Amino acid sequence: MATGQLTYNFPGRYSFICPPDVTSVSVVCVGAGGKSSSSKGTDSVGGGGGGLGYKNNITVVPGNSYLVVVGEGGRYDDAHLSGMRGGDSYFISNTTVAGLGGKGGQTAGNAGAGGTYFGDGGGNGV
Fold it and tell me: pLDDT tens digits, residue range 47-88?
């Protein structure tokens, strides 16, 4: 039976303190999108979307603290005229359950690629 839901919407690192009587959790993580290359011309290409990963029935211990990371969206890299990769989002570690960030676009180059995921299932970004 579900006892509640928590949502972490803002980029950063958080500590999830497991509530009493909770022994397993289900988690969905969405990686941040990559930044587009530039908005200054027709050679601009878009960044890739973040991947989405989920995992059900992760064993947790009441009172213990677990790491939650929410990735930040990609930024523009003036030095290389390209968009940077979006940050990864994950629970405990990026091998437990994760949505990996999308790749940034490159000016006069390739569009960003979608991020992948780790967990029981999910989908790649586009």
Answer: 888 999 999 999 999 999 999 999 998 877 766 667 778 899
Tokens linked to 31: 């990686």
Total residue length of the chain: 126
Counting residues of the chain whose pLDDT is more than 90, the rounded percentage is 57
Measure the CA–CA gap between 105 and 24, rounded to whole angstroms.
39
| 17: number of Cβ within 10 Å | 10
Phi, psi of 28 (to 5 degrees): -120, 130
CA proximity to 97, closest of 114, 115, 116, 118: 118
In degrees and rounded to multiples of 5, residue 104 shows phi and psi of -75, 160
The confidence band for 108, taking pLDDT boundaries of 50, 70 and 90, is low
Tokens of 113: 């690629």
**In a 10 Å sphere around its CB, with 0-12 CB exposed, 13-18 middle and 19+ buried, how is residue 4 labelled?**
exposed
CB 14 within 8 A of CB 29: no
The pTM for the full model equals 0.86
